[in-house]
Structures are given as C-alpha cells and as structure tokens.
Amino acid sequence: KMNLKILRTVLRQKGYQFLEAESGGNALGLLEQKNVDLIVLDLMMPGMDGFQTLERIKQNPTTAFIPVIIASALKDSSAIEKGLQLGANDYFTKPLSDDDRRFQLPLKVRNLIKMKKMQDELVKLNCELKKTQDQLIEKEKESAVVEMAGAASHELNQPLTAILGNLQLVLARLPQDDPLT
Length: 181
Description:
With about 180 residues, this protein is mainly alpha-helical. It has 5 helices and 3 strands. The chain has helices at about 1-15, 25-35, 50-60, 75-85, 100-175; strands at about 40, 70, 90-95. It has a 3-stranded parallel sheet with strand order 1-2-3, sandwiched between helices. Helix 1 (about 1-15) packs across helix 5. The radius of gyration is 35 Å and the shape is rod-shaped. The model has no long low-confidence stretch (mean pLDDT about 85).
C-alpha cells in the first residue's frame, strides 16, 4: 500500500491522471471502458497475476499497443525477463528508490506516454492515408469506365456509320418512281 501511495504521489506531482484497479480482472475491465495511454502493472495481485494480465493485455488488439511498465517487488532476473518477453516496455522494482521517485519513474512515464501519443498519431495518419488512397482508386475506376465507354461508343459508331453510308447509297440507286405512290 505504501508503494502505491508513493506511486500515486509521484504521478500526481507530474500532472498525470490515473485509474487504479485492485486486480488483473478489474484492470482488464477498466481497459475495456477507458482510453488509457500507459499501464503501470504490479506482478503480484489477487486472482489473475500480473503476468497473466499482461498476456491478456497484449493479446487484445484494442490494448496491445498500450505501453506497460511493470512495478514489482520481485527482483529476480527471470521475473524481469519474463515480463519484458511478454511485452512490457520497462520494469522497476519496489520499494522505489529516491532516484526512482525523483527522475527515473517520471521520465519513463513521460517517454512512454509520448511514444503512445506518436503511435496514435501514426495510426490516425495511416487511416487518413488509406481513406485518400481508396478515394483515388475509386476515381481511377470511374475514369477507366468513362474511357471504356468512349472507346466502345467509337467502336460501335464506325460500323454503324459504314452501314448508314451504304444504306444511303442503296437508297440513292433505287428507282425514283415508287409503285406505291
């Protein structure tokens, strides 16, 4: 609880807004309801542990690209390695040292949030690019149809013009005195 209080204080001092969840299941529920820029995840939680929660976060297409910092009292390298292999972006151990509180944690949070915002902007630009590309393809299709219609019209007009010309020649050679008149 003390580490959570320190973390809360550090984030508030830097002007960050945050949500808290008591368990992995609660965290996943919050992620379904809220747009989040960063997750600070403890590995030791009731019910679903942090590793399982991280796996679920990274498997879900809507949360997979949210940066994750693991905060844990587990200091063994295998836990750190496993968290990073599962997709965490960074790791720090509890209790937070003075350096962690003063500059490391705030800088890690700031950098990962910046990265997430740039990633979101790239996704937005990519969507706009795709939309513009689709519009250009549609215009190309319309242009091709108009061009094909013009070519078809020309191809049909040539034989019709020849037939009409021959018909006029035939009519001109017919005797003028029509027995029906």
